[in-house]
Amino acid sequence: MSTEPAITFSHVARHFARSGEANGTTAITDLHFSIRTGEHICVVGRTGCGKSTSVNLLLGLLPASSGSVRVLGVDPYQDFQRLRGRIGCVFQSDRLLPWRSAIDNVLMPLEILRTRNRATFASATELLARVGLAGYENAFPHQLSGGMRQRVAFARALITEPDILIADEAFGHLDEVTASALRHDFKQIARARGQTVYQITHSLDEALEVSDRILVLDRPGKVVGIFTRPQWEGGPDLQRQVKQDLRRLIAGQETTTEEAQ
Ligand SMILES: Nc1ncnc2c1ncn2[C@@H]1O[C@H](COP(=O)(O)OP(=O)(O)OP(=O)(O)O)[C@@H](O)[C@H]1O
Ligand SMILES: [Mg+2]
């Protein structure tokens, strides 16, 4: 088995040119960390600190301005084709196609990969049941609640059995009860399949609940803190302390607690 990390950012920077501005915007100054296979990472940090830009780099939608990004051993921008079907992603909005039924939305990635068939129809039905939507296969997005639509989006991200799952504020606009149930299912499925998870969130409770490690980013795009599960799972006092530290770091009141790896 390969010992190479599932994801590696090596001194990555990303700048955006802007017309009328001499220097443009620096979204990411220096991201330098790696994530091992099967690890569940949550990334937190205030708005504009480069979280979604890091997702776009992982998805190969953007090249790094300098440094290198590796996903499953390849450069996601240069070798985009080699990662097709190997990364599943869910965003804040469900991005479902309104003219397709739930099951046809779930099967869409397989159509793009040209692997849709009778067996995959069965797995899509099973997956919809796994995320709590048995009986809704033929419902259209407008017939589903926001939480149910987001469940379809999760099933669509999972249908290719990707090695890596990315969730960019995917639970952010759901009510806490719905979000918590969906988070739980997502975590269980990812763990059972040994998938690596890169999850962006503004909710510290969400981060503490699901992650093996929490990375704190600050503007412009650098890691200012790393916390590992043993630091907070020893009891309510530890958890309270870590939460306080996270809040301070996010507010920009402290610097690094641990070296980025
Ligand atoms: N395509 C782009 N062109 C120009 N600037 C961009 C582009 N994408 C992101 N930026 C800038 O990069 C910075 C980081 O944006 P990003 O979307 O990564 O932040 P974020 O951490 O995801 O914020 P939020 O928590 O609000 O989602 C911002 O200043 C943003 O304006
Ligand atoms: Mg964002």
Based on CA inertia axes, which overall geometry fits?
globular
The CATH architecture would be 3-Layer(aba) Sandwich
Content of β-strand: 15-25%
Q: What is the fourth-level CATH superfamily?
A: P-loop containing nucleotide triphosphate hydrolases
CATH topology: Rossmann fold
Which whole number gives the mean pLDDT? 91
* Total number of distinct structural domains: 1
- The poorly predicted ranges are 255-261
Report Rg.
Answer: 19 Å
Number of helices: 7
Count of extended strands: 9
The ligands bound in this entry are:
adenosine-5'-triphosphate, magnesium ion
Q: What is the rounded distance between the termini?
A: 22 Å
Q: What is the helix content?
A: 25-40%
Q: How would a textbook summarize the main sheet?
A: 6 strands, mixed
CATH class: Alpha Beta
Task: Report strand order across the widest sheet.
Answer: 5-6-7-3-8-9
* Succession of helices and strands: EEEHEEHHHEHEHEEH
Structural class: alpha/beta
